[in-house]
Design goal:
single chain; 306 residues; mainly beta; eleven-stranded mixed beta sheet; ten-stranded mixed beta sheet; 1 helix; 2% helix
């Protein structure tokens, strides 16, 4: 008899051995769609990673790994067909969402890992909870949201908007246009790499962390503080907004091999690293923290734009 129960009574207790899930079952779900020029690809993942890579043409190719974990392989195999991916597809939109299992399922966990090849010019909107997001080579806008994982963007060419909690964010722009770059992270570090020729106005702020722009030729603008940096890159223009709570910010250029520095701003040139005062390291690889700072919120929500 399979050790699997769907409970509808909130008063039931979960046996302590229900979380010992050594069984596993997996399959692949594949689809191909045709998307209009400049259309949108949207993936909403639950307990899984999302990998999106740019491709030439107008076809969206999706391969999703559906995985079930249960007390044994037979129980996992039984739950596998119940993992549902909802499709909302039209000429200008491809939207996929992992649906939750119905009821309260005991002794089972599921995950769906998406591997997507999307048209290079598509608008890509991704959300992941309890999983990482990776995007490569896209030239359109990229909008990212989620928590409990990490974000990596490589060779991007459009605007980037991200709200992330509990994990590091690394974004590298291969080209730079007029679209807004707005990235906000709670409980994680942020690293942004820009082309040397980027014309932008940078506004970066960090709470309980450092800001390092020492690799940039940055013209400082307005008042500078230990937790805020404002300045113009080259001719200025496109706004770059970076906000981190409980983490460090590093902004560098595509050809820079300079490692981030954390020296006192009074000891060097105008573009050296800025270190917030009263920060003490908590270990060799730990992020600094203000002595009298409020305790971190474990599962803080991403900062929302006004």
């Amino acid at each position: 008899m399979l050790v699997l129960a769907v409970l509808f009574s909130a008063g039931c207790r979960i046996p302590s051995n229900a979380t010992r899930m050594s069984g596993r079952a997996a399959d692949e779900w594949t689809r191909s769609y045709t998307l209009a020029e400049g259309g949108e690809v949207s993936i909403n993942a639950r307990n899984g990673t999302v990998d999106v890579e740019a491709a030439d043409g107008t076809t969206v190719n999706v391969r999703a790994e559906r995985i079930a974990h249960a007390v044994n392989d037979a129980a996992a195999a039984e739950i596998l067909p119940r993992i549902t991916i909802k499709e909302d597809v039209g000429p200008e939109t491809v939207a996929l969402r992992t649906e939750p299992l119905g009821g309260i399922v005991i002794g089972v966990t599921v995950e769906v890992n998406y591997h997507v090849r999307a048209p290079r010019s598509a608008l890509v909107r991704l959300r992941s909870v309890n999983g990482s997001i990776n995007v490569r080579g896209l030239g359109g806008r990229v909008i990212l949201n989620g928590s409990n994982g990490g974000v990596t963007g490589e060779d991007l060419g459009g605007g980037v908007e991200a709200r992330w909690a509990n994990g590091p964010v690394k974004i590298a722009l291969g080209s730079f246009k007029a679209d807004l770059v707005d990235i906000r992270v709670t409980n994680g570090s942020l690293r942004l790499t820009l082309p040397d020729t980027a014309n932008a106005n940078l506004n970066a702020s960090a709470t309980n962390g450092t800001i390092d722009v020492s690799a940039l030729e940055l013209e400082r603008l307005g008042d500078q503080t230990a937790r805020r940096v404002r300045g113009r890159l080259n001719a200025g223009g496109t706004p770059i907004e970076l906000v981190v709570v409980n983490g460090n910010i590093v902004v560098d250029s595509g050809t820079s091999n300079v490692e981030p520095r954390t020296q006192n701003p009074e000891l060097g040139g105008p573009n050296q690293a800025i270190l917030a005062p009263n920060l003490e390291p908590r270990g060799q690889n730990a992020e600094p923290r203000t002595k009298n700072a409020e305790p971190r919120t474990k599962n803080a929500e991403p900062i929302k734009r006004p």
